[in-house]
Amino acid sequence: MDRIPPHLITGRHLPRRTFLRGLGASVALPFLDAMAPARERWAVTRARTALDRTRLVAIEMVHGSAGSNAWGATQHLWSPPETGRGFDFGPSVLSSLEPYRDYLTIVSDTDVEGAEARKPKEIGGDHFRSSATFLTQSHPKQTESSDVWVGTSVDQLYAQRFGQDTPIPSMQLCIENVDQAGGCAYGYACVYTDTISWAAPDQPLPMVRDPRVAFDQLFGAGGSPEARAARRRASASILDFIVGEVNALKRELDPVDGRRVDRYLNDIRELERRIARVVARNESGEQRELPGAPAGVPDSFDEHVKLMFDLQALAFQADVTGIFSFKMGRDASSRVYPESGVEKGFHPSSHHGGRPDNVLEFAEINRYHVGLVPYFLDRLAGIQEGDASLLDKTMVLYGSPMGDSNVHNHKRCPLFVVGGANGRMDGDLHLRAAPGTPMANVMLSLMHKLGLDDVQSFGNSTGAFPLAV
After folding, report:
1. pTM assigned to the model
2. What is the mean pLDDT of the chain?
3. HSE-up of 368 (CA within 13 Å, CB side)?
4. Cα–Cα separations (whole angstroms), residue 115 to 133, 349, 433
């Protein structure tokens, strides 16, 4: 039986969009029992609430996968050997997702035709147009000027329809450096490499690399640059500016809601402390591994990605936004990932020459990247919202617009989806597409799962891809 929150009897009610404010800080509250309308059955309230809107996270990792190579495919380095339900992961680099197999759908062997060269002068430019194709499934116009053109991305189509009732319709995050000015190489504007989110075919959206900047955007930490600078000089937490409002609120809440607020605010404070430690370390004068990176950006890839995942989980919990795109890599990056056990740079490793030993080495980098995703899934699974977890209410899309990076092709591109999506994704499923199937077909089906049922085509789609057996 559902617990009847005390406020349903007393009649007290908090609006879902409740903020605690003070001196530039603006902290949205997580969902509380006190936000259910008084004298209304809890189950009915939950069914009616906008919280049943599926959260969306679209993650791009560049350079394809070792399993997209012809030899790597025979070794099942990306795709598990078996299809259907109850599959064995085998040697697949996706094995770290085993604890979440009931939420997992793998779609193997789709192609991203939009990233292929169509004219002789486009040959060789795959690294500099690929990212623009991932969520648009469209072919970028080759230009180094401002007349860029590709397509509207999945995340933005969703945000335009379902993201307008949150304070921030969508957010765009990245890990590597960005420079949205001028040309990069092979006649392509840098913006094609810098972002995966496009509000319109000619409107690329900037991505936030600095966790401190993302934190300030999400929690309104200072209404102006001057206010933020003053708060940082004082080494004060944003929570210090709302302590009065917190205490007043907790006097009105039942003990269960009070504990929820405490846990949520403690998570914010801990995240703020972690970011502050990164800034202090980077401003200490010690030599950095990432010279020129903003002070809020950790030198550690692992630490940076986890900070970004924590920010996304907290944003979902507070319903500040329900949509993120997250670019975890940058094409042609030679970054080294020590935690992967591979000492060779990312881009050199991706050009493995088809040699089995090199392909296996590249697979370990793939395994490391995918292995960071369960950290985020753990966070979502641990946050309850009504009678379900945030993982039950989220769709996480992870993939690459490149296949075999050694030859810069866009065949057998890696792709998986994890999360319950409010019951719309079945999970425990591995599907293998017929040769030549556009990834756009899968994207179209995912849009239907997100509620964009009236969308009939997307990019170069030829029809919806059945996400079932």
Report:
1. 0.93
2. 91
3. 20
4. 6, 21, 18
